[in-house]
Amino acid sequence: MIFETHAHYDDEKFAEDREEVLADLPKRGICPVINVGASIESTKTTLEIAERHDFVYAAVGVHPSDIDGLNEETFAWLAEQTKHQKTVAVGEIGLDYYWDKEADVQKQQRYWFRRQLELAREKELPVIIHSRDAAEDTMDILQELHKQGLNNPGVIHCYSYSPEMAHEFIKMGYYIGVGGVVTFKNAKKLVRTVEEIPMERILLETDCPYMAPVPNRGKRNSSLYLPEVVKTIAEIKGISCEEVVAVTESNAMKVLNLI
Ligand code: NI
User: Fold this and answer.
1) In this structure, are residues 87 and 81 in contact, taking their beta carbons and an 8 Å threshold?
2) C-alpha to C-alpha distances, 175 to 32, 73, 111, 169, 224, nearest whole angstrom
3) CB-based contact 33:9 (threshold 8 Å)
4) Contact 206/223 with Cβ under 8 angstroms?
5) For residue 176, how far is its CA from the centre of ligand 1 (angstroms)?
């Protein structure tokens, strides 16, 4: 089965047909699914979906562009949700300097990134990291935490940096999340990364409803398009699709402690 490590089925783009789409996934070879929180509100809706569906697990966390919703009170609530029986990770958390260019806002992002990383360490949960246009600061913060003993770290989701940097993340124990972008014509850097890193470090993900792979680029994405990502990785690596599915599944089980 294809292990989907990053989806947002609580997104409003699934408002009309959410339950149908979800019910269809295991029948079509997609199972399990990690639904990822990105704000306080979407952490709530993520947990609701995980409660309704056996094969859906939850990541709880606040995305760097949604840190407005964080204060001591909501952070304490978030910390409580790490104990929920369907919670398998803290995420998505990180830095996004593409959308937020103000120094002050970026400082706030770093503050809440650290707090959520520390929460994950305390609860011994892996992290799902969103990092865009913030390679250096992400690396610095993770190396700092790594030195302080952040083990079983997690995944750099929707990986967009250089192959060289991927090796650095992998050295610290991270996995690299690969989704629809790898099928895009202009994805040379990501293709090179996939070429260079070991299969044992790759996780499959969609980030749906966003990032639909070719030939559905621009449409609403769903985990049903993951076979296109599998096919592309198989071509790059010169191995079979079955092997891509099997290795990424075992990687995901390992990092998310689902064995
Ligand atoms: Ni996401």
Assistant:
1) yes
2) 18, 31, 23, 8, 22
3) yes
4) yes
5) 14
87-100 residue pLDDT tens: 999 999 999 999 88
Higher confidence at residue 226 or residue 150? 226
Residue 55: per-residue pLDDT: 97
CA of 175 to the centre of ligand 1 (A): 16
Confidence grade of residue 174 (pLDDT, cut at 50, 70, 90): very high
Q: What pTM was estimated for this model as a whole?
A: 0.96
Q: Residue range 191-210: average pLDDT?
A: 98
From first CA to last CA, the distance across the chain in angstroms is: 15
Q: What is the mean pLDDT of the chain?
A: 96
Neighbours of ion ligand 1 (CB under 5 A): 207
Closest CA to 117 of 82, 83, 86, 166: 82
- 175/126 Cα distance (integer angstroms): 11
Cα–ligand 1 centroid distance for 128 (angstroms): 9
Nearest to 138 by CA among 106, 105, 164: 106
CA of 206 to the centre of ligand 1 (A): 8
Residue found by looking up tokens 């409803």 in the block: 209
∠ CA 81-83-87, nearest 5°, is: 75
Q: Which residue spans within the chain are E strands per DSSP? A: 2-7, 30-36, 56-60, 87-96, 127-132, 154-156, 175-178, 202-204
